[in-house]
Amino acid sequence: MLYGSTLVYPYGSSIPNLYLSRGRCILRQVFFGLPSMLQRPYSLDVSAQLLRTQAFIDGRWVSAASTFPVLDPATGEEIAKVSDCGTMEAQDAVNAACKAFHLWKNHTAKERSILLRKWFDLINQHKEDLAKLITAECGKPMKESIGEMTYSASFLEWFSEEARRVYGDIVAPSAKDRKILLLKQPVGVASIITPWNFPSAMITRKVGAALAVGCTVVVKPAEDTPLSALALAELSVQAGIPPGVFNVVPCSREKTPAVGELLCTDPLVAKISFTGSTATGKILLRHAAGTVKRVSMELGGHAPFIVFDSADVDKAVAGAMVSKFRNTGQTCVCSNRFLVQSGIHDAFMEKLAKAMDAELKFGHGSEPATTQGPLINTRAAEKVENQIADAVAQGAVIVRGGKRLEGSFMQPTLLSNVNTDMQCMREETFGPLIPVVKFNTEQEALAIANASPVGLAGYFYSRDISQIWRVAEQMEVGMVGVNEGLISTTETSFGGIKQSGFGREGSKYGIDEYLEIKYMCLGGLSL
């Protein structure tokens, strides 16, 4: 089957190994039973400075009383042990951020801009090592990890520029003896709670905006992927970000509920920004309600992908491939529900199946040929497996794939004869599954697309300009890709409607999430 593995010390011991060589940490793994291209040793070779395993609080590296393991999802083997922070460490981080806030907010916008730019430059200098960490702890192919680091760095660059463009207003008064000003000021300490599927970019997209306007942050990274967050902390030090401005408190799955609750209820925290599931978002909203905090939520999606008869089939197939199989289907904007009009259905299915055969290669993310890595853990693979079984039981036909491999690997799967009652059409998949529903009319497709409680992203392909305007305006989502399957970019707003959350990240609007508007009336003037 797909894999088995062991980690070896340089001198032949058979226990997990991280060792130093000329200032770099090297993890060596030897794979057995893999496809031929993977039957050789794999080394994670990164700068020792970037492989951090302690919490980062108030500018210091802090050990907790216990640790938790970080695993390579491709092999199940341990990469590192990381400090398992509890509520005490989280409280220390909040206190440090609160103390630092009163200094950081008084830095000029230009000073903050310069420091964010230095951080951006350092990320670019260490892009390859940071990408290796993502591949090791997240499993995504190295090419995609490099792409994430470019994306991650771009938010620091963008918000370093936006820092100097936070403008208030002067309003014409109704009385002659007064002046009216609207000032924009930082909200304060922000709790940043991020997911595992983009362990670097989801941090910088939030933190870049927060730091640009003068907020300070406490980051709680996902328990599966803390190494990327800690590497960013190391580079923040090198960039000159003052102590307490950027804090990271990693913790295990067991301690996450208590740490998350503290970060959402502590009176010193003014703002919460969360990316993750809708179910978890609802829990955090309940926590935040007690102290009426500012909240941004980027929650689950269930993106429709519609192909109309007027579409260019080849472009639609290419869009489906990039939209569905990026990060092995593990992105919140991945297409989940594929709706193909009857006149073009058979041609689309034939070409999509051929594209899957030709382009998708699964294996360890460190291998250059790999396009499909593992899912993050076995629970994720079980979910996809169950959705396929449910669909087949209700009459769906497996056109490609359909099988669970060892560990958390899943074959990329294409299903036909799908209906809207199937589980894969009702629940977000987060895996490499394409279920295709055949439809007849535009109204039918829109009804299916909008019949979801979430509305993050949606996609459709058409060459009919009137149809493009109609459908784009009627789709109940926060982001629409028209004849495009890859829509995320720094300059545009990212966010959803319905139960996909509220607030926007990126773009010129992302910075507003960390600002309060203060009305100032200056009266008693002699004119």
Automatic annotation (TrEMBL):
Reaction(s) the record says it catalyses: succinate semialdehyde + NAD(+) + H2O = succinate + NADH + 2 H(+)
Main location per the UniProt record: mitochondrion
InterPro entries in the record: Ald_DH/histidinol_DH, Ald_DH_C, Ald_DH_CS_CYS, Ald_DH_N, Aldehyde_DH_dom, Aldehyde_DH_Superfamily, Succ_semiAld_DH
Aldehyde dehydrogenase domain residues: 61-519
Top-tier EC class: oxidoreductase
Lineage: superkingdom: Eukaryota
Subcellular location: Mitochondrion
Any GO CC annotation of this UniProt entry: mitochondrion
Keyword list, A-Z: Mitochondrion, NAD, Oxidoreductase
Entry-linked PANTHER family: SUCCINATE-SEMIALDEHYDE DEHYDROGENASE, MITOCHONDRIAL (PTHR43353)
Protein's job: Catalyzes one step in the degradation of the inhibitory neurotransmitter gamma-aminobutyric acid (GABA).
Oligomeric and partner information: Homotetramer.
Name this protein carries in UniProt: Succinate-semialdehyde dehydrogenase
